[in-house]
Amino acid sequence: MSYRLAIFDFDGTLADSFPFFISVFNQIADRHGFRHVGPDEAQALRHHDTRAIMRHVGMPAWKLPLASRSFIGLMRENAARIPLFEGIGDALHALDREGVRLAIVSSNSEQNVRTVLGPVLSSLFGHYECGMSVFGKASRLRKVVKRAAVPEEHALYVGDQAMDADAARKAGIAFGAVSWGYAPIEALRRARPDREFGSPPELLHIAGLIPSRTPPV
Predict the structure, then answer these.
(1) In angstroms, rounded to a whole number, what is the distance separating the alpha carbons of residues 204 and 189?
(2) Interaxial angle between packed helices 18-32 and 64-77, expressed in degrees from 0 to 180 and rounded to the nearest 10
(3) Do 62 and 92 share a domain, yes or no?
(4) How many CB atoms lie within 10 A of CB 148?
(5) Helical H runs in the chain?
């Protein structure tokens, strides 16, 4: 099945921001009073969902918006250090040429998203919904689908974390899991994605340009 609307998460899906996130995590922890995480520990925590990670570092839910704002601010100051994953630009251009409508729903700021994408790729996206809580994406997904006037069954949210899958399900749309993001694909498979993408060129599955990969049962 091909999709008419592809909605993308940003961090870990389009942008390779995990190394930067790890480099500033302990700085944010000091600022907001939760526990440091070492490099090896950070890799292990990728197998856990966001709530479990928050419990592990001792971050209460009320601190999450504060920590998120700190990360967004630091990223704004260092946007030139954040690359896109190799092949993302080519895949987005190909989807656009095939008439797939593109949108972004991200907890990061629209300014950061546009800066990292650059003006050419930014112009390919018809809808931006940014800056919400990581747990508040479902309502933004519904908003994008409504604005795009695309039936829910023809919309796909592409992300790299289990909470992205949860948001897609709450919004009534399909979820596509990427294997190159924050969470390893083994962890994402537990969320039962509708599609699985092993590399950025496989995003062309969205338009039906190459055979789709069915996630293992």
Answers:
(1) 20
(2) 130
(3) no
(4) 18
(5) 18-32, 39-45, 50-57, 64-77, 88-97, 110-122, 137-148, 162-171, 185-189
188 found inside a domain:
yes
* Dist CA 188 CA 54 (whole Å): 18
Number of domains in the chain: 2
Please list, residue by residue across 179-196, b when 16 or more beta carbons sit within 10 angstroms of its beta carbon and e when fewer do: bbbbbebebbbebebbbb
Cβ–Cβ < 8 Å for 204, 95: yes
41 in any annotated domain: yes
Burial class (CB in 10 A: 0-12, 13-18, 19+), 216: exposed
Domain finish residue from 81, 100, 123 = 81
Which among 149, 47, 48 has a CA at the least distance from the CA of 103?
Answer: 149
One digit per residue, pLDDT tens: the chain, 217 residues? Answer: 689 999 999 999 999 998 898 888 888 889 888 888 887 787 777 777 778 888 888 888 888 888 888 889 999 999 888 999 999 999 999 999 999 999 999 999 999 999 999 999 999 999 999 998 878 899 999 999 999 999 999 999 999 999 999 999 999 999 999 999 999 999 999 999 999 999 999 999 999 865 555 555 5
Q: Does residue 123 form part of some domain? A: yes
In terms of pTM, does the model score above 0.85? yes
